[in-house]
Amino acid sequence: MRQRKRNSLVAETVALTTLFLAVVLAVTLVQIRRSEPAPLQAQAATPEPAPIDLRQFDKVMTIVLENTDYEDAIQQPFLASLGRRGAVLTQFFAESHPSQPNYIALVSGSTHGVSDDRNVTIDVGHIGDLLEAKGLQWKVYAEDYPGGCFLEARQGEYVRKHVPFLSFANVQRDPGRCARIVDASVLAQDIRDGTIPDYSLYVPGLKNDGHNAGVAYADRWLSTMLGPLLHDRRFTTGLLLVVTFDEDDRSLFSPSSNHILTILYGDSIEPGTTSDRKYNHYSLLRLVEDRFGLGNLGENDAQAPAISGVWRSRPMKRGAARPDVGPSPFSNPRQGARRNADSGRAAWRVNAWRRRSPCRTAARGGPASVRG
Fold first, then answer.
1. Domain 55-314+328-356 listed as CATH 3.90.1150.10
2. How do residues 334-362 score in pLDDT, each as one tens digit?
3. Is 227 exposed, middle or buried (0-12, 13-18, 19+ CB in 10 A)?
4. Is 333 helix (H, G, I), strand (E, B) or coil?
């Protein structure tokens, strides 16, 4: 009798546990479905026209940070300040998880079936092909990049998965093209020489991009690295600066919408504007294609929504100081003034940015989750 009761109790416990797990699974699936971003506007038969005369800028530089959702990113002091001085795309979504597919999408118009962070070689077209066909220049500034067409997955703070051009077969096989991927320290020399290319991608190391240290750390690093340059007309004149993220900070118990922050800054941008239209990385790719008259890659870039609602109706006079730049973001105003007085000095050189970084404590809230 006791054995029968014990068996009955075990069966009831198993049944209740199974029911509970089924309910949890059903609720989780509903949350995931609800959290998925609505699709971008339906593709039209032909791409919509670019919204303005994009000749207001003649260079584009994109800086990619890591693994942060929109709400957390926009609350960071420097990013919030940059957004006020530039334009915020409030409905910008990444394409996938983990990191690598989003980087590949950013420069080739598709994830091309890449779904993880393992080294891949894909024989597809990319923005570098279109630029070179027009006689234009492109370059990747990658922190801690070993050079020499290094194709291993990682060395120090450098990871290949964040440098999408090294996944393209026609870059891997061509030493001249591989030479377009350089250590980030080269940027300081390019600014002094006036040789920033038509299109560039800046890839911070794993700590500075927030992957291993969190978005608060990345924000302080960005203030130290980028802040002085926003006062240097050799850097900003004719430049459209894009700061974006690869993906949001999803977790097992917090379903992802992949809603990320993207900011545009430059003389062509109306300060303090926002656009609530839905965009993704393909829209950034299309922006470069439209500006330089490159055509498209025949992928998702061909029908991506054109970025609108943030451009100046009249471009600023070349060489004029931006009224919205504001004070130097350095914590010590006197120190900032000294550096801004002669930004050509070695004090702000890229080589020294890492050595002087004020980000010496862990970010509040702890490091970002360890993933792509």
1. no
2. 333 333 333 333 333 344 444 444 333 33
3. buried
4. helix
Quick one: tokens of 207? Answer: 């700590």
Q: What angle do CA 191, 269, 308 make, to 5 degrees?
A: 130
Q: How many residues does the chain have?
A: 372
Q: Tell me what percent of the chain is helix, strand and coil, each rounded to the nearest 5.
A: 40, 15, 45
Collect all residues with Cβ–Cβ distance below 8 Å to 59 and sequence separation of at least 6. Answer: 196, 197, 198, 199, 200, 238, 239, 240
Residue 19 reports pLDDT greater than 70: no
pTM score, two decimals? Answer: 0.77
Tokens of 85: 């001085």
Report residue 8 as tokens: 């009955």
In whole angstroms, how far apart are CA 72 and each of 79, 215, 219, 226, 248? 10, 8, 11, 20, 10
Q: Which residue carries 């039209």 as its tokens?
A: 44
Q: Determine the Cα–Cα distance for residues 351 and 279; give it in Å rounded to an integer.
A: 34
Domain segments of the chain as ranges: 55-314+328-356
- Sorting pLDDT into bands at 50, 70 and 90, what band is 45? very low
138: pLDDT strictly greater than 50: yes
